[in-house]
Design brief:
Blueprint: E1 6-9, H1 12-21, E2 25-30, E3 36-41, E4 44-50, E5 62-67, H2 70-85, E6 95-96, E7 100-101, E8 109-114, E9 120-125, H3 138-153, H4 156-169, H5 175-191, H6 195-206, H7 212-217, H8 219-230
Parallel strand pairs: 1-4, 5-9
Antiparallel strand pairs: 2-3, 3-4, 6-8, 7-8, 8-9
Helix pairs in contact: 3-4, 3-5, 4-5, 5-6, 5-8
Protein name: VOC family protein
InterPro entries: Glyas_Bleomycin-R_OHBP_Dase
Length: 234
Amino acid sequence: MKVIPLLPCASIDEMLTFYSALGFERTYRQTKPNPYLAMRREDIELHFFGIPGFDPTESYGSCLVFVPDTAPLHRAFADGLRALYGRVPLSGIPRMTRPRPRRNVGGLSGFSLIDPGGNWIRIFPTNASPASPAPGGKLARALENAVVLADGKGDVAQAAKILDGALARVTDASAVERVEALAYRAELALSLQDPTRADAALAELHNVPLTADDRDRLARTLATVEELCRDRTP
């Protein structure tokens, strides 16, 4: 049995260019009587139909993709986006989020790709067990809520508001929790095209004193911050 999502778009040619950059191959294309495109990368198969005048910002198109490990696919997509756009887009359409645990899906670490048709391709690990909730304080819980809103729902402005409130109120958070929150706040600021707030969050992050153990625990986040700085719009 096979199930293939059929997703809307304004232009199948735009989708062809986009998904080709991500390592997909065209398996079918037609322009008449209706625009239609089929793309495949290994076991991931996506089909698209064109609608004249379609507005990607109004799209409800979405699908779930389960893969053995999300990290290699995210790296491959990021490389493709950098080749196509010179960076990994964090705002507008298209864009891509970064892998991080999602509280609303049992702590599974996933990421979302929003394509030129406004379709949300939500990618999660196939065989991973839901993570046990990690102990954390108020700032960590605010970060979890912000991730659900921004990465899962697309409400970046509300996520930033929640995180700003927590960063201002919570003074007893651990260094690790504060760095995690500030790193994500910088990403949200860039998604909102607010480089001033991103610079402020990154400056505060770099001033947080960290032990060697803290740096080990934050290795992935600190690497993400470096990527974030590299991918910033000139």
